[in-house]
Write a structure and sequence with these properties.
globular, about 15% strand, six-stranded parallel beta sheet, two-stranded antiparallel ribbon, about 210 residues, 9 helices, alpha/beta
C-alpha cells in the first residue's frame, strides 16, 4: 500500500520554466553573461548553483548570482501557472511532500499565490545538500519502505533518483514538463502519466 507521494515542483506541479529562464537570462545579462539557449536544457537537473557554475567562471559573480539572489529578485513569481488537475491531488489521502531543487521560500510563495495549501511538507534545495540523502531521511522519518512511496517528476533525473531510492517512479509528461516524453521514456519510469488526475487512478491500483 502506498503511504507517501513525493513530488518534484517545477514542471511537475507548477509551470515555471519560462519565468525562471527569463529571470536568469536577465540577471546574467546584467553581469555580462550571454549563455547559449541550448545550455538551458540542463536547467533543473541540479540546484541552480550547479547550473550556474557551467556559465560563470568568476567566483565573486557566482556568489552574487546565487539561486536565492535570482529568486528574490524575481518579481514575476505570480506568472507561475497551476498544472492542470493539480486540485485532484487534494483528495489523495496519502501524505504529500514536495522535494525540489528550487528554494523553499520561493515554492511556498508560489503556492500561496495560487492558493494551494494541501502539501504536508516542502523541502527546497536550501533544506538539503544531497537530494538522495534527504529522500532517505524522509523515509526514515516516517518509517517507510521504498515500495510504499511514489516519486513524481518531469525529468529523467527524477526517474533515476526514484530508482536509486528504490521507490516507484512516475514520470509526468505534459505541456509544462521540462523534459520531452521520449527523454522520460528512455529513462524507463515505472509509469508515465500525461496529467495529475491519472495519478489518482494509479493509486487505486495499489490499494
Amino acid at each position: 500500500m502506498i503511504k507517501l507521494i513525493v513530488f518534484d515542483f517545477d514542471g511537475t506541479l507548477v509551470d515555471t520554466r519560462e519565468m525562471i529562464e527569463n529571470v536568469l537570462k536577465d540577471i546574467l545579462g546584467k553581469y555580462g553573461y550571454k549563455p547559449a539557449d541550448k545550455i538551458f536544457r540542463f536547467l533543473g537537473d541540479s540546484p541552480i548553483e550547479g547550473f550556474l557554475k557551467h556559465i560563470i567562471s568568476d567566483k565573486g559573480n557566482l556568489k552574487k548570482i546565487s539561486l536565492e539572489f535570482v529568486l528574490r529578485k524575481n518579481k514575476n513569481y505570480k506568472q507561475a501557472k497551476l498544472i492542470k488537475d493539480i486540485l485532484k491531488l487534494k483528495k489523495i489521502k496519502q501524505k504529500k511532500i514536495i522535494l525540489s531543487n528550487n528554494l523553499t521560500f520561493f515554492i511556498k510563495r508560489v503556492l500561496k499565490n495560487l492558493k494551494i495549501d494541501f502539501f504536508d511538507e516542502i523541502y527546497g534545495a536550501d533544506k538539503f545538500k544531497n537530494k538522495y540523502d534527504k529522500f532517505k531521511k524522509i523515509l526514515e522519518k516516517y518509517n517507510l519502505k521504498p515500495f510504499q512511496v511514489i516519486y513524481v517528476g518531469d525529468r529523467p533525473v527524477d526517474i533515476l533518483l526514484a530508482k536509486k531510492v528504490g521507490c516507484i517512479s512516475v514520470a509526468i509528461s505534459h505541456k509544462a514538463s521540462w523534459s520531452k516524453k521520449k527523454e522520460l521514456l528512455k529513462a524507463e519510469p515505472n509509469f508515465l502519466i500525461t496529467n495529475l488526475a491519472k495519478l489518482t487512478i494509479l493509486l487505486k491500483k495499489y490499494q
